[in-house]
Structure to design on (1244 residues):
């Protein structure tokens, strides 16, 4: 369970309250506001706040005095234009805040994106919950052979079972020892009064990297789309990609026009290098082009042929 | 007039609409939402959007699941603690967006703060309005003599009048020539059909630096407070300080606890250097300390004595 | 003249001194170090410092302990791979610092790139030189008609002459009045002792936007390439493009492998949107595609056909 | 041992080579360039590159054309002034790059400073070494009671011994299982050919948080000083503070004037809040002030009295 029931009650209480505002409201996003979307075995994302909508992008691009009486088709056209021409600043005018629960090794990839605001649950102050990520058998794979970064074939069922058992045993043992080190019960009293506990900031070092952590993560729409273009990509590790894919769905609810432009002009498209463009031009001219004389390396060639539907 | 009536109508229309939201609402800020606060002779700021409140800072610091049922006094205590200990990330969880109209030379100081999102009205695409800043006589001052950066005595009235006349004449002439260069009337037709106009991106170079521009400026609360601590300071140029002071008032409406902590612990306080701290300790020990043997330069000494009420 | 002779002497003196260092040295960049490269009528860029080379990108990607004994071909392959896969952080490990002299209206475009360190010559402290940009007749153009942002046809010679005369007269008059307002001679004494001068921070507002300013601008290689991909582009305004193009030449001297990867995989390439990719696939399949049934707008269609050599 | 001998050879080879450069060279920093400074049990920092010196700060503040013929005393005065007045941009003109080896839980604190460039050794691509941090007995402490974040008394020797044994056993076991999961020997062949290995990006999740990682970390001097003011502070966790303190020594070698200004005006000083300033003024006026009527909380009062030497 992602959300213990005591927290679900807090969420339900907040969801029950609405207040009038003069700000732009996005009903499709309000619908899921505060709700946890479960991910992996104990993780989630939930949208906890947002600012702006598709119209805010348009207003910023025009530096206008009000929402005006725009036509939807004009707005979509302008947003597409901004996306194509890489006029990125209007997309920075929308902001969203997520509460995320995620394994520490995923958090370490995620935080490399520096253009967000973050508050992480502190294991210097507080005690982490006993929750760790164990992959489902269908996501346990061998090392890719053609690519030093990535996964190959899914493991045989019995091997997968053994791997999961091992991960579970180590995580459980390390967590149990973490508790021994802390020597604190839930009310902060020593569990074993005959010895001292170790400071939280020290005890945490015994946890494994699949332990779950949490944070508030706030970012503007432009930088969010950049994050998603990298992390919802097929090259991204599965365990972060599921988060990115769930966030894409929230973007679709929040700013459907921007989502559409992003899908059409960024993640759905293809970047041709100069030699790849040369190959396309030669192919269009009816020439037969071989990899050897294409100016492309083997990997780039294969990716290009696949993208052009000649794979 | 800061706001031409056609824009005021847009603002009034937006202000008349309220919609229910599950997000946190700050009534004191909603009250002035979209309204232009006039500054200088043609400038303004207006709050056009915001995210979060004092509670959002507390929730982020605690990485909590909901607004909870906090006591106000506990929240203020936590916020003071965060401010004193420079735990700045919780303050980044609130975001505000302003629409600002300001002279170009002020915009050039302002934009040096890089931690905000900006969309400026583009003089490549559009034609700037005929509005330029002329200082009031009471703000026309000579160069400071004790400080290479700053103002000294206010000018004599007749000299001030001459200065304003000169500034006005040059700005008007340059703007008139800007229009000649553009050779466009309001419907985009040539004013003089016998000659070509010059591209907007070129014509703008003839404008003077007191011409007004506009932008949308969006920033988180932590970086806003940093901006305000520098620009609402007595060392800041008057023409940017009036903007910072008006923004301080909006912060007070928006996040009164953070405002209080900021006022008490940052801008209202005093930073003692190591030698200044030594002076204070010696004074407290009853020693008579002279500037010569204080380890402080004359300027730092004077500022210290003034701050300690011994000026 | 970009560089008054008193400054050229300073530059020559610095160029004459070499000191041994353990750091990586790039001879081709050292060759032009400190030298001003003239741009426009009074502007320049000069490289005043740098950190790292192509090898530093490779070392960072590998987190290695030393320069190693790499083969050039392997390094180029790795750099190409990093560029294609958007692994941008290794390119952030190289840093360069420029001293730039540029018109204020160009500086205002430039500074919107926020990922650099900047120190601008301060007109609050100091007095700006009497230098302003006047376009050459061949760069004076009318407003583009097909594109709200950009230039169309070059002006007729007599009109160009009239425009330049007007720009010159206004800039000269505004500068002369700036001096009157300051009322300071070169030694800081009043030119007219019967009246007070106006503070520098105020007087500067009378200058026109083509007045030259200067700054130190320091940036890492990744963010520099991003800047150059936007500002060396044909959509950029001519007056900033000349700076970007001159900087591209310095990048070529500094990190030739990165320059090559950047040229091949970024600025020389083409980004296909999802519908544009669909068009290419249909064309390759031998289908005749018309703009009307392409899913592309007219402008995107034209740009695509031109890029594919079917313009 | 921090540096295996095969790496020490690489370092020695790089140190043996010097090349002439026109850039500023800092002999005191060159002396230690590339050398690893050992920290904790397996960690280190080493300076691998730098740009600029004290003079670069002065040149940037003045936007000058060359190094000039300055007096040292003037430079120190200007640098002190910049530090006191929070003119931070000139300090951004110097850049330094470190290679750091550090436990993962320290890396997680460190990376929250977002204003640096980072390349971390990737456990998706590569296999981490068998090295983990085990605290010395003198650094094993109980949880602080007066402060939810921090350490209290050092553990009794026999308890410390037990803690270290436990940390060691878990780290060793988790690492051994990590190797089992990978099922790769040093040449990349399966250790056990009867079963598949698990992808590196998955296997790493079984490691404990005291495992060492490495990164290249590059930052400008202003942001470095900000980092050091927080992480060399007594409130910082010991395991990151040792890194900050070692870096302070490198800053002292690199930019001694900036180091001096930083020590005097930032970390050696004291920030008085508005009520604390009120207390100081009352004390100086000869009044007896009690905490109860001071307007300060107990903790702030105690810290103030201690800082004023009345603790």
């Amino acid at each position: 369970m992602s959300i213990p029931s005591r927290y679900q009650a807090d969420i339900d209480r907040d969801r029950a309250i609405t207040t009038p505002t003069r700000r732009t409201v996005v009903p499709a996003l309000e619908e899921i506001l505060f709700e946890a979307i479960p991910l992996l075995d104990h993780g989630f994302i939930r949208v906890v706040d947002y600012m702006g909508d598709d119209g805010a992008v348009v207003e910023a691009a025009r530096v206008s005095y009000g929402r005006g009486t725009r036509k939807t088709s004009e707005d979509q056209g302008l947003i597409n234009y901004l996306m194509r021409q890489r006029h990125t600043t209007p997309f920075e005018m929308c902001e969203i805040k997520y509460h995320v629960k995620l394994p520490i090794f995923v958090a370490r990839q995620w935080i490399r994106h520096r253009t967000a605001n973050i508050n992480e649950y502190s294991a210097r102050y507080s005690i982490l919950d006993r929750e760790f990520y164990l992959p489902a058998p269908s996501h346990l794979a061998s090392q890719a052979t053609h690519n030093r970064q990535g996964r190959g074939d899914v493991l045989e069922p019995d091997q997968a079972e053994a791997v999961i058992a091992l991960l579970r045993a180590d995580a459980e043992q390390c967590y149990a020892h973490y508790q021994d080190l802390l020597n604190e019960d839930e009310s902060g009293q020593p569990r074993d009064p005959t010895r001292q506990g170790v400071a939280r900031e020290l005890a945490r070092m015994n946890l494994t990297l699949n332990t779950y952590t949490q944070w508030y993560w706030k970012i503007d729409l432009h930088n969010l789309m950049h994050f998603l273009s990298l992390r919802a990509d097929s090259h991204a590790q599965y365990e972060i990609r599921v988060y990115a894919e769930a966030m894409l769905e929230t973007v679709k609810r929040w700013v459907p026009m921007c989502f559409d432009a992003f899908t059409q002009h960024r993640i759905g498209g293809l970047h041709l290098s100069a030699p790849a463009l040369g190959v396309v031009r030669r192919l269009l001219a009816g020439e037969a082009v071989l990899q050897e004389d294409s100016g492309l390396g083997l990997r780039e060639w294969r990716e290009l042929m696949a993208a052009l539907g000649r794979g």
Notes: The longest strand of chain D covers residues 43-51.
